Amino acid sequence: MNLGTPPPAPRARVVPLGTVAELCAFVDELAPTDAGELVIGGAGVGGSVYVDSRRICWAAAKGLARRLTQLLAEGGAVSPVDLEDVYRRCKASGVPLGESLVSLGVTSAPQLRAALAQHTVESLAQLTGGANLGVWNPRAHGAYSARFTFGTAEVLARTGAFQSGGLAAGVEAELRACFWDGEWGAAFVRLADRSRPEPVAWVGEAPLSAAGLMERSTWATSALDLVAAFDAQQPLVAVHLPPARRRRGREVRVAFAFEHTVVVGEVGDQGPARILNRRARARRSFTG
Amino acid sequence: MRDALVERPDVAALACMDGRAGLVLGMYVQGDVPHDLVEMAALAGPQLCAAPTDCPDAFVESEAWVHAFVRVPERPDIVVMGLAQRGTNVTLLRAWLGEVAGQVGRAS
């Protein structure tokens, strides 16, 4: 019996990892059902990133093996002893660590998600840079829960916030005041040596892909540049999205400047007026 | 468009722009508003409505002004712009501009 030629084995690919944005772009370009591991090796660098269905599920970097434990302990969520115990049990049973920590009541889902996000960002910051390269190895789908994995837009925005340090905290507070539940907003800075604005803060459920987030930041900076020619008094630009791109409670896309950042987001119909009023109140209180 | 503007003393200017040709087709101003700023705003209309994708309308609101832009039905390359002082109800301004855009569409 002729069974024909067997299908070719998936081939490893080499991926440049100079920046987290490059890594996110690679993930965005994968097929929606792809899963695999990016293995990074080199002088002083080592680790891997597991990706499933265009989401970053786990990142591990040399020297950060105990960082997740620290982050959970810093948040008061779990003691190192508890974590070690659960980790050993998970390793034996093959169950993802995060799921077990929550199901056993060791930590809450939001605490775990925040710690995992920070751990991912710090690991990626270490794994990317310079001429770093990763090797992509296709793998079987893992058992990661989507709530403990991260879309590339979130990873990119969190990375920017992590790298910008103090700037992000003040901007994020403003975003939280401007954008309500169900809406999203992100702030970017324009750097002279970068071709595109860099995210520094973000609130709400941003578009899943980093490419989508960057497309919106480009729109916002272009729109504000255009408007500056005829209205220089801190304008807010708003467009009603066409029905195909609208989501309930996010009918309007807005762009405005806040301190040294450009803010873009999607809000409900009343969002622009609400944001303008908030900004007007802030100006009045500032001028006394 | 001139008649429409006269009926709305709260609106400072009304303009119509052909985005494909890059031309201001008509511009009417009442009150103390610099014509060059109205023209620049009108010229920006098609671009503001074209991105991020073809949007039906757009508006720019600042401490002083509200610029509202509405596409002409069946002629999406043509955009009508209304300029009013801040504090004007944007929803009503947009609705009124929609009527003006409809008239422009029927006349073109």
Q: If you compute it from the alpha carbons, what radius of gyration of chain B comes out, rounded to the nearest whole angstrom?
A: 12 Å
Strand order across the largest sheet of chain B: 2-1-5-4-3
Query: How does the overall form of chain B come out from the CA principal axes?
Result: globular
| Ends apart, CA distance between termini of chain A | 89 Å
Assigned CATH superfamily of chain B: Dynein light chain 2a, cytoplasmic
CATH class of chain B: Alpha Beta
Walk me through the topology:
The complex is a heterodimer of chains A (288) and B (108).
Chain A (H helix, E strand, L loop, with lengths): L12 E4 L3 H10 L5 E8 L2 E8 L2 E7 L5 H8 L5 H14 L3 H7 L5 H19 L5 E6 L11 E2 H13 L1 H13 L5 E6 L8 E7 L5 H19 L7 E5 L11 E7 L2 E7 L3 H17 L1
Antiparallel strand pairs in A: 1-5, 2-3, 2-5, 3-4, 4-6, 7-8, 7-11, 9-10, 10-11
Helix pairs in contact in A: 1-6, 2-5, 5-6, 6-7, 6-8
Chain B lengths: L1 H5 L4 E8 L4 E7 L5 H16 L6 E5 L3 E8 L2 E11 L4 H18 L1
Throw out a few tags for this protein:
heterodimer; A: 288 residues; alpha+beta; Beta-Lactamase; 2 domains; five-stranded antiparallel β-sheet; 9 helices; 42% helix; B: 108 residues; 3 helices; 5 strands
Task: Provide a short characterization of the protein structure.
The complex is a heterodimer of chains A (288) and B (108). Chain A has helices at residues 20-29, 67-74, 80-93, 97-103, 109-127, 152-164, 166-178, 210-228, 271-287, and strands at residues 13-16, 35-42, 45-52, 55-61, 133-138, 150-151, 184-189, 198-204, 236-240, 252-258, 261-267.
What does this structure look like?
The complex is a heterodimer of chains A (288) and B (108). Chain A is of the alpha+beta class. Chain A has 2 domains: 13-148, no CATH class; 151-287, Beta-Lactamase (2-Layer Sandwich), CATH 3.30.450. Chain A contains 9 helices and 11 strands. Chain A has helices at residues 20-29, 67-74, 80-93, 97-103, 109-127, 152-164, 166-178, 210-228, 271-287, and strands spanning 13-16, 35-42, 45-52, 55-61, 133-138, 150-151, 184-189, 198-204, 236-240, 252-258, 261-267. Chain A has a 6-stranded antiparallel beta sheet with strand order 1-5-2-3-4-6. In chain A, strands 8-7-11-10-9 form a 5-stranded antiparallel beta sheet, sandwiched between helices. In chain A, helix 6 (152-164) crosses helix 7 (166-178). Chain A is globular. Chain B has 108 residues and is of the alpha+beta class. Chain B has one domain: Beta-Lactamase, CATH 3.30.450. Chain B has 3 helices and 5 strands, in the order αββαβββα. Chain B has helices at 2-6, 35-50, 90-107, and strands at 11-18, 23-29, 57-61, 65-72, 75-85. Chain B has a 5-stranded antiparallel beta sheet. Chain B is globular and about 30 Å long. The mean pLDDT of chain B is 91. The interface between A and B is medium-sized, with 27 and 25 residues. Strand 9 of chain A pairs antiparallel with strand 3 (57-61) of chain B.
